[in-house]
Each structure stands twice: as structure tokens, then as C-alpha cells.
Amino acid sequence: MRAKSRRVPAFQAEHAQTILEATEADISKGFAEPMFTWGAFCSNYPAGTFRTIRRFPVLQSSGKVRPCDDGDGGGHTDLTCDDNKLSLCNALQPAVHIRALHQAAEELEADITAWDESVETGGEDWPDAYRFTPFWPAHRLLAVVMLFHPKWKDIALVIYNGLLFGLKGAVIAFNRYSLFTERMSRRLLAVLISLYFDDATIQDWGSCRGSAQAAVQQVQTLLGRPFALEKRQDMSLHGDFLGLTHDLTQAMQGKVSLTPRQKLVERFTSMARQAKHEDYFPPGLAAKASGLWNFLQTGVFGQVGRACLQPIQSLQYLDLPPFKFTPSLRATFDMLQAILATEFERVVPV
User: Fold this and answer.
1) What is the pLDDT of residue 144?
2) Neighbours of 100 (CB within 10 A)
């Protein structure tokens, strides 16, 4: 049995080698089984026993090409819907942790503003987060990754052992472990920690010299899911979480300052500049812009700016090609950039 078509879209053909290398890296790490041609795969798994999911390249605003899996096109999104609802924190969570410290002090009738102490913040990030969350073995054939192999000049199929980014059901499945890690670290280790998917923010007394962060990492290592050392934010008075930089210099006095992370502001500005120059703004880029602004607005003016996002959201879900950079999009980005240009600092009283 052979695939009916070998026609590959130009952008996908251009980055086929990048997609192949990323898939081969997953295989080498044990996240996926060996790769087969369509014919070889079907000789082992007859038609009707598996469902393919197309892997395609996405150009991120940073210029990096990332492989993604089309859960909508393969019908996986509809088949893996879940009635569970996620309850996630936002970029203000470090301030919420500091508020908890002050509330606990009030209950103990302690004046921590007079203590010769500081509060420090750190961050952690899981590597290959979804990949480490396994499929139920019997379900692996319901999400067989399909990609174009530039050397074989043919379709290649791969069975994955870990969850894929294109599966709606993977979001809930992964966050069950994320929530378990958060609750376990709070209750067993007494650590101020919160997770947003695979990103963790941790706060601790400065005199503890990073012991909370070390304890969380030790437990995660014992569980087989250590955080990535190269992505760690060591404990200090300043940290980044979900696009905001938070300052705990005055945390003992009840104030936490937050500002948008400069790198994200530059990325957002660069995205707008490139879209204007090329007169092209596809749905993938619109989704990225919407996501970036959702992070940035938390540290700027809260809900201000949300109303003008409609042109971006319309392009993301409703508009059809050609994806021109329309006057309404131009006006939207001009307004959002004007908000960012104020260099606003948000101070949260805790």
C-alpha cells in the first residue's frame, strides 16, 4: 500500500530536513519508535488499525522553525476532547506567594517588615515536557506521526511513546502531573511554588540560600522528571515568569514590582515590523501575537488593549487567504505598541 500523493507544500519541503532532524532526535531519546516508509509501516500495521497525524513546520517570531502536529486535520482534536477544565496561574503568581507569607505572618502576629530578612525568587523549566508524558500503550497507533522524508523522497511514519503537542487531550494529561508536582512540593516540602504547564516559579527566604529550589529538584530527579539545569533561574531578588520580570526588593515591606520582559517586548515589536514590511500575517503568526500580548498585558494595564485584539483573533480563527496586513491590523499593532512604549511598571501591594 502506498500513499496516494507525494506533493509537498513549498514551505514544508523547504524545512523538511529540520522536521526530520527533530523527529530523529526524539527517536534517539526513546520518545518514539524507529521510522518506516508508508509501505513498510502498512505491512506491519494494516490500514484501519492506525490514525496518522501530519507533522509540519511553523516559523516562530524568533525566526526558529518548530515542528508541530496537526491534531485538527487528522481528527484527533475532536476525538480527544476532555470535559476537564484547566485552572492555571498567571504572571502575578510570585506576588500571590508573597501575599501568602504576609498573611501567615499576620496570623502569627509577627511583624516581618522589621525582620533582617529578604525573599528571593527562582524559576525552573521541564525539558521535552509533553514527550515525558507517556501514551497508554494501546492508544499509540491512534496518533502516528506522518512527515515527508527528504532523503527517501517519500512519506515516513513514526509511532510515538510520549504525547504530541498537537493533541488536545495531551494538555489535560500533562497538566495532571504538573499539578501533582505543585501540590506535592507545597505540602510535603513546604515550598512556595506554582507551575504554569512546564514553567515553575519558586519563592523562599534569602537566608535559606536556595534550599527550597534544591529540594524540589531533588524530588523531581527521584521521580525521573528533573528540571532542565540550563533553563534554571537561580534564586535572587529578581526573576522572570510568564513574560514578566518581577522585583522582590521590597517584598518584606509588602510591594512586588512587575514589568514586561524586554525580550518579549522586542519580539512583539519585531513581529509587527516584519508583518508591515512583508504585508503578510498568517493565522499561525496571529496566534503567536495573541499569546504574546496575553502575557505582556498582565504587567502593563491589565485588560486595557484587549478590546482591539479582535482583528488578530478574527484572522486566527475566521479569515481566509490571502493573509494581508490590513489597515485594521496596522491600527491594532499601533495601539498595542503605544501602550508598551509607556514602559509602565506595575506595583502590586501584598
Assistant:
1) 94
2) 13
Please give the grid coordinates belonging to residue 224: 525521573
**pLDDT tens-digit map of 226-243:** 999 999 999 999 999 988
- Each residue of 203-224: pLDDT tens digit? 999 999 999 999 999 999 999 8
- pLDDT, one tens digit per residue, over 86-119 is 888 988 899 999 999 999 999 999 999 889 999 9
Burial 228-245 (b: 16+ CB within 10 A, else e): eeeeebebeeebbbbbbb
Between CA 301 and CA 29 the distance in angstroms is 43
189, 215 Cβ separation under 8 angstroms:
yes
**What whole-number distance in Å separates Cα of residue 134 and Cα of residue 119?**
37
Give residues with Cβ within 8 angstroms of 26, minimum separation 6.
Answer: 32, 131, 158, 160, 162
Distance, CA of 20 to CA of 263 (rounded, Å): 29
Sign of the alpha-carbon dihedral angle for 291, 295, 301, 303 = positive
Q: Which of 334, 282, 279 has its CA nearest to residue 308?
A: 334
Count of alpha carbons within 13 angstroms of residue 60, beta-carbon side: 10
